[in-house]
Amino acid sequence: MRVEEIVTDKKRLLDLLLLADEQEDMIDRYLDQGQLFALYDSNLKCAAVVLKLNDQECELKNIATLPSAQRQGYGTAMIRFLVTEFLGHYQTMYVGTGDIPETLTFYQKCGFRKSHRVKNFFTDNYREPIIDHGVHLVDMVYLRIDK
Fold first, then answer.
1. Bridge partners, residue 143, by sequence
2. Does domain 2-146 have CATH number 3.40.630.30?
3. Residue 110: left (phi > 0), alpha (psi -120 to 50), or beta?
């Protein structure tokens, strides 16, 4: 496996990023300013975007694994890489997600712990309802991992 940063033509990974963030204009809000990484294991398996919030904090804005590569450790490997890479420069990394037990458990197994919640994030920021694992997402749940 190898991870490389994508610095040009970031939109070429848009189809993959849309698996984790279903509205293109929401991705447009962070893709140019964020750092985009791609994980390969003979071919592309996973992509992630990390955005600097300030000198102390960054946020994992998007992480998506191809459906054919899910549950094979690629997402976990990407998060391990990102935590190692970014917690050398920042005190805290955040990740925001829907209130889905399976997803929250995944991040917690990667070392994140619950931080805070933004009420009505999905209903206020997305044109269409976001349904994940049969659940209509309303609030954004943030988790954090610290140096």
1. 95, 114
2. yes
3. alpha
Rg of the chain over CA atoms, in angstroms? 14
Dist CA 76 CA 84 (whole Å): 12
**CA dist., res. 14 & res. 24, Å (int):** 8
Within 18-142, where are the H helices?
Answer: 24-31, 74-86, 101-109, 121-125
Contact 19, 64 (CB under 8 A): yes
Tell me the pTM.
0.95
Asked if 33 and 11 touch (Cβ cutoff 8 Å), the reply is: no
CB contact at 8 A, 93 and 87: yes
Calpha distance 1→94 (Å, rounded): 25
Q: Which pLDDT tens digit goes with each residue over 47-101?
A: 999 999 999 999 999 999 999 999 999 999 999 999 999 999 999 999 999 999 9
* Residue labelled with tokens 């044109």: 127
Q: Which amino acid is at 47?
A: A
Identify the residue whose tokens are 């939109």. Answer: 11
Paired sense of beta strands 57-65 and 43-52, if any: antiparallel
For the chain, domain boundaries: 2-146
Tell me the residue type at 46: C
